[in-house]
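User: Predict the complex.
Assistant: Input components as received:
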Amino acid sequence: MGLVVETTNVSRIYRQKLSAVETRALEAVNLKINEGDFVAIAGPSGSGKTTLLNLIGGLDYPTTGDIMVDGVYVNKLGPDQLAEFRLRKIGFVFQAYNLIPTLTALENTEYVAFLQGASRKHRDHDAMSILRDLGLETLLMRKPAQLSGGQQQRVAVARAILAHPKVILADEPTANLDSHTGEELIDLMFRMNRNLGMTFIFSTHDKMVMDKASTLIKLHDGRICE
Amino acid sequence: MLTFIRIAWRNVVRNPGRSLITTGAVAFGLAALIFLKSFVTGADQQMITNYTDLLIGHIQVHRRGFQNNMGLDKSISNPSKLARALLSVPYIRAWAPRVKDFALISSTESSAGVLLMGIEPADERYLSSLHERVRVGAYLNKGDDDKVVIGRQLAENLRVGVGDKVVLMSQAADGSLSSAAFTVAGLLDAGGEEIDKGLALITLKAAQDLFVLDDKISEIAIETTSLDDVQEAVEILKNKIDLAQFEVLTWKEISPMTYQWLKFDQVFTGLILVIVLLIVSTGILNTILMSVLERKHEFGIMSALGTKPDQIIFVVTVESFFLGALGCLLGGLVGVGLSYFFGACGIDLSSISEALNSFYIGSVIRPKIDAASTALYICVILMVSILVSMAPARRAGRLKPVDALAG
């Protein structure tokens, strides 16, 4: 398996606009993740987990250092190229689900595939197939507000998977779910990882997620400590 | 593309209260504009029709220079030759020869200066509506060569009535002082001072005799099949007569004041259009801006998933277009409906009929839809609804996903 993510001396410093106060969210982070890994990034709140995922996913720029994902230096891309990078290479599963509120479960699942230019026929077929696998076949036409947290998170996973990304970034995906639903979701993603060979990178506090991970990275005060 | 349009549409219906207020404001603005324009168009057309029908006609043919300096020395000799040219011009519905000059009219009590017009009563009936404005007495008939019809106010000034004698005096074409006595046959009540206070009508023959003109005339007044045909008829007519000798004038040139008034009317309507557009624009801008700020997080999600800035701008712009289009649909229906309704039954403004009469507008105004202006207003509002969305759309497109998701 080849290298899919590599960060070199990555730092992210937040500066407040009207003061000289600096917050060092990440400092000199170096890590390498192989294709097909099931990686958990653990650490207390404020340790920089979300910041690291945001940087890998091209949602933000590092203050210093380089981030390479699937051979692309993410920190060197402009806004349009970053959008294209996220579209082709990254799948996101957010803690707050982050489905588009005006679209149905089916449309949300298809959204990224639509942006990628997949035909309606293919999108419908693949989305329905995945949603069926996730036990959501009766909820296709429901809007996010009509779904439970667990159901929304499964739609978010379906959306990420349907896009066939190189890496799926999941920011504390079980944080808002009860333990049973959370466990089901992690099992689901673990199966996807095993069956489809997709690389998963989680940020988590959850012991159960850490136990499933093939690689565990511990962050503390913005530095990798283990 | 369809998915973006679907997202935009659902955003419009997601907050029905806010969307209704915005579309309502657009609809109200457009309906008001269409109705106002229809009202003004109806009133203007009434004014033009009344004014041209009353006296001047749509076109007049004179000897060159007559319009600027009216005088018997600029009379048309051999008018039958000119009449033959008129027969071959399409769009001409009626025409009538006239003699025109200033004269002094005197009664036993008083005297006044008037515009004296010699007319062929039978021809004039097809051209002007003066005969309908005789409120007391009778209009002229063929052979009434010793009778005169004068304005009501002129009669009051002269202290004469129907059946009384007046004397008309003027310098004749041969330079002599000419005068003749006439019996007042009828009193005109046209509504405008110009006619009611300053016009006297006698037969063409009586005028030619008074002014010693033989068969010469001062002008030929022409009515075309419609006001829209005037320009074309003028162009054709100009090719058929000797322009070194004659001038062909449209009603706009004969009565530049009326034409200027209509122009002013158009500018005034245009000004109101701009004000309404500003109000409509502010409404749409406010809605879109609020909507963008409220959905910052949503745009962050779209951006994080790989939606390009241009695609987000497209969604916001289409949303604004929908609001504008809905408003236009509603406003168009209401505006056109109101204009048709009042066009059919008329708006009675008899309480201010005196003021309207002085502009040759009747007391009942019938709004008339101006299709071109209506289409223009709709296009402008649709364009404005797209243009005002540009700033908030760009703002949405430029959001940094990490900030938008956090916010």
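The interface with chain B takes residues 54, 57, 59-60, 79-80, 83-84, 86-88, 90, 92, 94, 98-103, 107, 110-112, 114-116, 159 of chain A (CB under 8 Å).
Let me know if you want any component modeled separately.
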